Amino acid sequence: MRAQSIPQALALRARIVLACAEVASEGLPRSASSVARQYGITTETVSKWRARFVSHRLDGPGDAPRPGRVRTVTDEQVAELVRLTLETKPKNATHWSTRPMARRTGT
Question: Tens of pLDDT along 60-69?
Fold first, then answer.
């Protein structure tokens, strides 16, 4: 199974939330199991996105921050690196390589 792209995943989450808001023939909101069957997913997935929407509204279906190491490079440092790469050239070379650029920027 291929991983979904961000837009496809977000679209599925939106469809789940909208399906949960639909009214079934009994006049009640649709069950998680009927929505899960419709999209071929688990009831746990339906419950997760329904709960996230209820608690966070439109921000709910978006991706939550992922765990990991804290970023150590600032946006300004990235911009400077790009500027140096595009606008300068090292001595005795036609382009920057990793080590000379690291020495130049002190990283």
Answer: 777 666 788 8
